[in-house]
């Protein structure tokens, strides 16, 4: 086994030694060629490829790293720990996305005054979210390179892509090269669903004009944003993607041998990640979405709702790949929670969703049906967020207006089919995998 790994490593080093500077046919972005590893049954992420290169593209550089807890290799070792073993790599600053760097952050941080440092690299930790929507000037001015590695959810509501775009914006201003280590779309790369964001409804949870379930990797989306001039003021960055090897668009994340690391505090497994496609919309209503319980994004309820009544209506819709179970529960706030769950400490009645077939389950059709039915069954109690946040999440006012018109829930999904078809055609030139 050791000999086989040594041979594979040698092959990778030899190939990359000659092809490191080769590029795809993009105007502003470079995709490093990856050797044919089809003889090996495993999927190699961008980090795995860079590791096989002994991290040579990072040598003798002061780098900034945008990452979180998900940036692990096949053995579960984190990127920051891997970099520590290379004396020629100097990690100056660590940029963190929404939710921070690690779930148990106290063990990873040390504090000097009001500033946070990573004890392994003694690197300053800078959150690029909230107060700093993009890296501040002082944090990038001395950098030679910015390295990006984190696992996205495959769902538009995630703010990671927006933050990556803001990093590309700053990198273009300071002429700092950026390398993105690609990772899979956890929900397959051949499935698209939901409306494309309309410009008037753009937000950090819908930063680019893409559907809710976009079917793309962070590498592909980064190339799309860079090539299309979606960075502020049509800026372009010196962007390089280190792609994956052996990943197919038909793969779910659990096809990989890599360990599952939650990309979001409330997304605890691949099924919750899939359900998040639809149930993330519940944040725009006064329905509890399961947060505050052991089933976030797998439950819907409220103190004023009858789970039996709602389940009866849902069953009649014959939604694919899902069953419903009536449940009574009380959302609780846990010490680690930054946000208070809706209807905290109140008895809620509702439904649990049980995904029977992930390949057939339609999370958007299911979640929108629950909201539309709740609005029809409880018109006095059901409410949208006062600031119409539902429009920002959905990317369109269509859902809210459709519900107000009292139309059948199963009439809604066909309305975004045109968006899905057009986006699928548009994205083809940015796809890096079959």
A few lines on this structure:
By secondary structure, the chain is of the alpha/beta class. It has twelve helices and twelve strands. The strands form two sheets. A nine-stranded mixed sheet has the order 1-9-8-7-2-3-6-5-4, with helices on both faces. Strands 10-12-11 form a three-stranded antiparallel sheet, with helices on one face.
What is the CATH third-level topology name of the largest domain? Answer: Rossmann fold
Task: Tell me the total number of β-strands.
Answer: 12
Lateral strand order in the biggest sheet: 1-9-8-7-2-3-6-5-4
Number of helices: 12
Provide a descriptive summary of the structure in words.
With 434 residues, this protein is of the alpha/beta class. The protein folds into two domains: 2-255, Rossmann fold (3-Layer(aba) Sandwich); 270-421, Aspartate Aminotransferase, domain 1, CATH 3.90.1150.140. It is built from twelve helices and twelve strands. The protein has helices at residues 2-19, 46-52, 79-84, 137-140, 160-174, 218-228, 270-279, 307-317, 363-377, 389-394, 398-404, 417-427, and strands at 29-31, 61-67, 89-96, 110-112, 115-118, 123-127, 145-149, 178-181, 239-242, 299-302, 322-329, 348-355. The strands form two sheets. It has a nine-stranded mixed sheet with strand order 1-9-8-7-2-3-6-5-4, sandwiched between helices. Strands 10-12-11 form a three-stranded antiparallel sheet, covered by helices on one side. β7, α5 and β8 form a beta-alpha-beta unit. α7 (270-279) packs across α9 (363-377). It is globular and about 65 Å long. Residues 1-23 have low confidence and may be disordered.
């Amino acid at each position: 086994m050791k000999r086989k790994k040594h041979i594979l490593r040698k092959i990778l080093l030899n190939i990359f030694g000659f092809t490191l500077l080769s590029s795809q046919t993009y105007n502003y972005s470079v995709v490093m060629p990856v050797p044919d590893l089809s003889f090996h049954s495993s999927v190699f992420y961008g980090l795995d490829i860079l590791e096989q290169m002994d991290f040579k593209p990072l040598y003798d550089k002061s780098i900034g790293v945008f990452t979180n807890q998900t940036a692990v290799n096949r053995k579960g070792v984190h990127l920051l720990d891997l970099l520590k073993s290379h004396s020629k790599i100097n990690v100056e600053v660590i940029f963190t996305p929404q939710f921070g760097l690690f779930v148990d952050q106290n063990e990873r941080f040390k504090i000097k005054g009001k500033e946070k440092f990573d004890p392994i690299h003694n690197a300053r930790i800078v959150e690029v979210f909230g107060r700093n929507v993009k890296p501040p000037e002082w944090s990038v001015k001395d950098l030679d390179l910015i390295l990006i590695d984190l696992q996205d959810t495959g769902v538009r509501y995630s703010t990671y892509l927006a933050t990556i775009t803001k990093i590309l914006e700053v990198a273009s201003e300071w002429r700092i090269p950026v390398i993105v280590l690609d990772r899979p779309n956890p929900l397959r790369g051949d499935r698209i669903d939901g409306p494309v964001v309309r410009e008037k409804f753009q937000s950090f949870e819908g930063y680019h004009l893409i559907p809710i379930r976009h079917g793309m990797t962070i590498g592909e989306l980064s190339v799309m944003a860079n090539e299309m001039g979606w960075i502020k003021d049509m800026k372009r960055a010196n962007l390089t993607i280190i792609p994956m090897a052996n990943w197919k668009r038909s793969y779910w994340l659990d096809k990989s041998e890599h360990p599952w690391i939650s990309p979001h505090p409330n997304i605890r497994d691949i099924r919750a990640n899939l359900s998040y496609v639809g149930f993330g919309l519940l944040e725009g209503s006064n329905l509890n979405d399961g947060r505050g319980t052991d089933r976030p994004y797998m439950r819907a309820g409220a103190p004023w709702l009858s789970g039996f009544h709602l389940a009866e209506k849902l069953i009649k819709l014959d939604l694919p790949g899902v069953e419903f179970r009536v449940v009574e529960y009380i959302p609780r706030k846990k010490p680690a929670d930054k946000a208070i769950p809706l209807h905290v400490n109140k008895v809620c009645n509702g439904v649990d969703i049980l995904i029977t077939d992930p390949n057939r389950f339609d999370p958007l059709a299911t979640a929108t049906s629950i909201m539309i039915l709740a609005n029809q069954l409880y018109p006095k109690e059901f409410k949208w967020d006062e600031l119409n946040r539902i429009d920002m999440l959905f990317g369109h006012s269509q859902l809210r207006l459709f519900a107000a018109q009292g139309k059948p829930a199963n009439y809604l999904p066909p309305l975004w089919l045109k968006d899905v078809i057009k986006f699928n055609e548009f994205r083809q030139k940015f796809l890096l995998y079959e």
